[in-house]
Amino acid sequence: MDPLSWGEIIVRILYQFLPVWLSMFVVFTASITFKRKLGLYGRIFDSTVGMIGFALVTFWVFTAFYASAFDLIATHDPLVQASGMKNKKPGIPLREAAKGAYAYYLLGGDNLARDVFSRMVHGSAIVLSIAPLATLFGYVVGVTLGLPAGYFGGRLDTILSFLANLILAFPVILLFYLLVTPEIIATGIPMYMAAVFFIFPLVFITVLLNSRYKVLPHIRTPLLAVVLTIGIWIYFSTISESGRGTFVDFWPNALDLFNIPGGVLVVFISVVFVNSPTIFRIIRGLTMDVKSRDYVAAAQTRGETPWYIMLWEILPNVRGPLIVDFCLRIGYATILLGTLGFFGLGLPPESPDWGSTINDGRKLLSVYLHPALTPAFSLLSLVLGLNLLADGLREESLRD
Amino acid sequence: MGMFILKRLGVMALTALGLTLIVFYMTNLYPNLEKLAKTQGNFRMSETEVSTWLNNRGYTRPLLVKYGEWLGVLPGYVIEGTDGEVRARCAPQGQSVEDAPEYCGVFQGGWGYSSVFKEPASDIMWKRLSLTGFLMLCALLLTIPVALLIGILAGMREGSKTDRTLSTFSIVTSATPEYVSGVVLIAIFASSAVGLKWFKGSATKAMESPDFENFTLPVLTIALFSIGYIARMTRASMTEVMTAQYIRTARLKGVSFGNIVLKHALRNALIAPFTVIILQIPYLLTGVVITETLFNYKGFGWLLVQAAGNNDIDMLLGVSVVSVIIVLATQLISDIGYVYLNPRIRIS
Fold first, then answer.
1. pLDDT tens column, A21-67
2. How confident is the model at residue A157, as a pLDDT?
């Protein structure tokens, strides 16, 4: 078989992404048709910048979804090596393709003869399963600590702010090197940190519901009981790992819902750890700004509890800047993940995530471009999409 | 103002203490010490050999005692090892134990001894820091004028074609982390696959003789991200100023557009970017680590990676102290500068 020309490669790649195009088409038509009824989300479709950003983000979200859930899009297994495909240029046919297997390496092979295209597609699944969730966790930590720091002020604020500034004074890479080495993982420190960080969502949800339904005990008690049971179950499933000898050994295996691979958990925790002080500072600043407003004073006069005021009066009113920052921060988390991969920290070396593949590809960059450039442009387009989406949201939320 | 600076310096010292204590704790965890023993001694040491090695060198004593020695508030250890040799903290290899001073911590100006480079930590640090200082200086000299120019040109006529082009450029560069822009720049300008080969993809030679060929790409890589970010901040501040009342008044009085921008708008528009630029320096430090690794330029960032990767305790502590001083000093400068530049705050 002959190698594919660039035109053929592009057509074949576009065809591989067919499920993504269809889904994006459905999402965009539905959203544009009903955009007046969809609030802030609908208003993204009033700004070109926001739409471009949203398109880039949804492209990668659907790619990650179809690749990991249905094994579509990718042409090969991201970890399997094919003989004779080492560092081959894009569009080279496989030497002895098995029956039913895809006959080409669409974007060439890397230095271990794996398919660059499939690695990029599966890399998106890793990036998009860690970055948004880590940002969300960072937000939960930042909100749970930042609201009281800004609202009460005083000594609590001084201590928390000092701790936040302490973490922020670390160069990010030094922090990663201190947290994400095999030796530190052996001491179990990341597991302890995970145990601490994963408590925050539990606390947050409990306080959120309790402050809302405190006056209605017949709703609150069963609600909290159900939510806490599920929450604690998930908490211990996350923390405990069978056979890994972590400090949570008492949790029975039968109740262990899932195990997160060790490397992923450490990476996740360190991204949360790096992000949360900045989020804390943003929320603290916004709270201090808003707490002197009349509606807060009104709630205080009504005799509402401090947590009710913080979570149900202040937080919804500062959501505008937070939504914008959330988009930007997912982008930043993606960059951090890439940095970890670039230094070969955390995730296993054969992992197809974009940072690790860039690190792999850069060693032979002066001769073979495709193994490094493919993940580099993928990462760039996702972060750019998130930034554009944030810009569009900011523009639209400032309009009124 | 004096009180304010004093207070900030106090917080700085406290932060530096807290930070070094954390680094000290992390590097002195047993698996890390074990790794240190194995890289320094030999890789086939048994468990007991490792612990004797560590005992003889005082690594297994309580953390706070070791930290006090490093600070210089406690006298350095003198231990007669199980192998009969007497070792003292203040007498590094080759020096006799009797001549060694009693205290040799940071307060006495002793930064310890690098276990990887076999040299006093401070010597290495100065050498690497000056290399990185030069790199950062070049990057800043490129970043600041370019970023301000882009920001002002884009912000003076909001929504114009120039604004859209320049804003697109700055949003793309600020979405590009250094390891992406570096890879792309090397691919375009240095690889044999594209064939331009204008510059070199490695900056190893630039440490002795930096020239246009081997130094452009690292400087550009560091600068690009900051250019985008600072330009966006400048643009935002410029558009805000351009809609202010006094600009409208000047325009109605018939002042020319060039005069309005240069004499009326610019001075107010540059206050915000000043803070951004100063606060960008610590971020540059992170960028420097990536860029130096990518281009194999052996500066401060490279040193950080080496020290952290090999658990070189003294070196890592020195590096952290220097970084925390850079971070906190830039914060202080930006706060003071902001007060001086902004008459509304200065006078009240």
1. 999 999 999 999 998 888 888 888 888 889 999 999 999 999 999 99
2. 92
Specify the pLDDT at position B55.
83
User: Among B177, B192, B193, whose Cβ lies nearest the Cβ of A338?
Assistant: B177
More confident residue, B226 or A185: B226
Picking from A165, A177, A338, the nearest residue to B179 by CB comes out as: A338
Q: With contacts defined as CB-CB under 8 Å, which chain A residues touch B31? A: 183-184, 186-187
Helical (H) or strand (E) element with B87? strand B86-88
CA distance A234 to A255: 9
Query: Which residue bears the tokens 């960032």?
Result: B301
Cβ(A338)–Cβ(A358) below 8 Å: yes
Q: Which of A242-251, A304-313, B209-218 has the lowest mean pLDDT?
A: A242-251
Give kind and range of the element (H or E) at residue A210: helix A199-213
Q: Where are the domains of chain B?
A: 2-110, 122-341
Distance CA A357, CA A378 (A): 11
Quick one: pLDDT at residue A333? Answer: 94
Closest CA to A186 of B203, B156, B311: B311
Q: How close, in Å, is residue A162 to chain B by CA atoms? A: 8
What fold is seen in the domain B122-341?
Answer: MetI-like fold (1.10.3720)
Q: Which residue of B has its CA nearest to A186?
A: B31
Whole-number Cα distances in Å, A82 to A350, A369, B118: 15, 19, 45
- Give the start-end residues of each E strand in A71-122: 92-93, 104-105
Tell me, what's the ipTM?
0.88
CB A189 within 8 A of CB A270: no
Q: CA B320: distance to chain centroid?
A: 10
Measured distance CA(A199)–CA(A196) in Å, rounded: 5
Size of interface A-B (CB pairs under 8 A): 144
- Tell me if B15 sits within 8 A of B324, measured CB to CB: yes
Q: Are strands B78-80 and B86-88 parallel, antiparallel or unpaired?
A: antiparallel
pTM summary value: 0.90
What token pair was written down for B68?
């006090």
